[in-house]
Amino acid sequence: MVRLWVHVIVREWRRRTGGEARTMEGATRHESRYAPAMSNISQERIGEYIKQAFLVLKEHGGSLPSRELLDILSEKLHLSDVERAHYEKSGAVRWETTLRFYSIGTTKAGWLRKQKGYWILTPEGEEIAKLPPKEVIQRTHEAYGLWQKSQPKIEETDEEVETPSEGTQRSLELEQAESNATAGIEEYVRNLNPYDFQDLVAALLRAMGFHIPFVAPKGKDGGVDIVAYKDPLGAAPPRIKVQVKHRQEKCGPQTVRELLGVIRKEGEVGLIVSSGGFTTDALVEIQKSPVHIEAIDLSNLISLWQKYYEKVDEESKHLLPLRSIAFLDDEE
């Protein structure tokens, strides 16, 4: 079984790469098994999908939720009616299914990582994005072929299909569900008001075992939104001063400097939680800080909430309520 969380929204699950390998059995025979599943879209066009996906990821700091990435690509790729068509059996969009299918090869090549509904571009992927589409797809086949040769032999057939095999389709549907779940949870959290978001952070810290003597009331907070202690009296380090930023814009270096200004005592450290993420300058400022400051963006916050959810107090679970469901795991 694959265990998922749902909230009226579905949480994410992690597909293991071995399972993906089975769904793509025989894919190294480029035109006979890897391509026919998407036979109405040319190989060069698929290379364009991959190239543009990598370029968009680079433009957005190297990672995006896969659903958001696909929405951006749908505007950039000037898709035809054939590409936008849905598979009759599954209802999946043809071009999206094609990109998800071939993205498996790019992960085996080490150009792309997938984590909790996010697609993350690697430095190797940035280099691949400089190539023309035709070479991108050729390199994808070659890289996947090298990986596949290292795997145990799996019985193959010569049957060709117009749509992905049942196993492949199931893998793609699970990935899409993960993507939709992540996007749904993130949207829910973004729609929280600033004080509920602040309470969410405080509840998470409690679930992680910290004592919370202070949560800022409405109004000016003096530069600190939450204080967290390792013990009830705050006698043992670390003593954490937390700045919470709940807005669409990324957190800049000024927030880091402001937090540094209120960290005055030995044993105090900083934590910035930003639902909008962080600018590169902010991350550089954190790295060169003379005291330890941790940065948590929306993706990491949700991951931690999922991890410690069972330890969240019942009164606080309403801030982001989840429930667990199970899906068939092809590996079992």
Number of helices: 13
Shape descriptor reads elongated
Alpha-beta content class: alpha+beta
Order of helices and strands: EHHHEHHHEEHHHHEEEHEHEHE
* Proportion of strand residues: 5-15%
The end-to-end distance, rounded to whole angstroms, is: 7 Å
Query: What is the percent of helical residues?
Result: 40-55%
What is the makeup of the main sheet? Answer: 5 strands, mixed
In which order are the strands of the major sheet placed?
A: 5-6-7-8-9
What's the total number of strands? 10
Mean pLDDT: 82
Computed CA radius of gyration, to the nearest angstrom: 23 Å
Uncertain runs with pLDDT below 50, 5 residues or more? 8-37, 156-163
How many structural domains does the protein architecture include?
2
Task: Describe what this molecule looks like in 3D.
This protein is α+β, with helices and mostly antiparallel strands and 332 residues long. It has two domains: 14-190, no CATH class; 194-327, 3-Layer(aba) Sandwich (Trna Endonuclease, Chain: A, domain 1). It has helices at residues 17-23, 30-34, 43-59, 66-76, 81-84, 94-109, 123-128, 133-149, 166-190, 194-207, 253-260, 280-287, 298-307, and strands spanning 2-6, 63-65, 112-115, 118-121, 211-215, 226-229, 239-245, 268-274, 293-297, 323-327. A five-stranded mixed sheet has the order 5-6-7-8-9, sandwiched between helices. It has a three-stranded antiparallel sheet with strand order 2-4-3. It has a two-stranded antiparallel sheet with strand order 1-10. Helix 1 (17-23) crosses helix 9, helix 3 (43-59) crosses helix 4 and helix 6 packs across helix 8 (133-149). The chain is elongated, with a radius of gyration of 23 Å. It starts with a strand and ends in a 5-residue tail after the last strand.
